[in-house]
Amino acid sequence: MTKIELRENIKRGGGQATDWLQALYTFAVPPQYLADGLESFGRLRIINEDRIKAHNGFGFHSHKGLEIFTYMVRGETKHQDSMDNVEILKRGDVQLTSAGTGIRHSEVCNGNEDAHLVQIWAYPWKESLTPKYFTRHFTEEEKQDKWALLVAPIGSDGVSTDREGDGPTPIQSDVALWATILSPNRTISRDMPTSERERKAYLQVVQTSGFNKGPARGAHVRVEIGNQSVEMKEGDGAFVHAAPKEELRMTNLGNCEAEVLLFDVDLD
Question: What are the Quercetin 2,3-dioxygenase C-terminal cupin domain coordinates in residue numbering (predicted)?
Fold first, then answer.
């Protein structure tokens, strides 16, 4: 059955986590946020929107058995890991670490400007994978008023397994990430993935105007699929259930650009 369920910004957990971190959580992050039992959606496990003060960040820590990817919104972060990767990530970059059997990494704000990023965790399609690291860069033009495919499963058409390459960032999971920067009064659409069963997607409007834990503000979009529609502002998310190939339409109702992420969460 086609439906869209709004998840308002005010329902996200988190806030001022430390003196250097502002974090908003969509799914449960125990013990800080239990999300009324909302632990995942399809293969998605975590969507955290983080703001890290300059010269601060997450020191070396361990991960195992997850696909971890970062969408940079503003500023820079310095990534280091136990696979000897050292990289400065900036606006337009997508970095993915396939933690597999285990890695250690750190993410620290680089330079004098605070960093703003969205970090996503997804369950892989099997256990005990070999750890891998990938980065990709996407221009503003690639996302302007159209959906750009940023992350897609390894083995999909156009997906390279080079550490740094063209096309979508490869992921060892049945998840894809699309992004757009939608101008005022513009409408874009895309069809739900082909399948013989119901499809699921998750939408998140990036909170580009600044940190806000209260009612959403800023960019304003309308999302429609079938005879269902919701209006979303910055910080709001939405769960989408629809038939295969059903058209999802999004219109920018506001007077500023809207940066939106769309996750296909069950491509298997």
Answer: 164-265
CA distance 200 to 241: 5
Q: What are phi and psi of 200, to 5 degrees?
A: -130, 145
User: Which residue's entry shows tokens 């399809």?
Assistant: 42
Question: What are 226-232's contacts with CB under 8 Å, separation 24+?
Answer: 226/2, 227/2, 228/2, 228/3, 228/4, 229/4, 230/4, 230/6, 232/6, 232/203, 232/205
Torsion region of 198: left, alpha or beta (phi above 0 gives left; psi -120 to 50 gives alpha): beta
* pLDDT tens-digit map of 59-96: 999 999 999 999 999 999 999 999 999 999 999 999 99
DSSP 140-185: HHHHBTS-EEEEEETTSTT---SSB-SSSEEESSS-EEEEEEEPTT
> Whole-angstrom Cα distance, residue 7 to residue 36?
12
How far is it, in rounded angstroms, from Cα 40 to Cα 141? 32
Angle at the Cα of 249 from the Cα atoms of 246 and 254, rounded to 5 degrees:
165
pTM of full prediction above 0.90 = yes
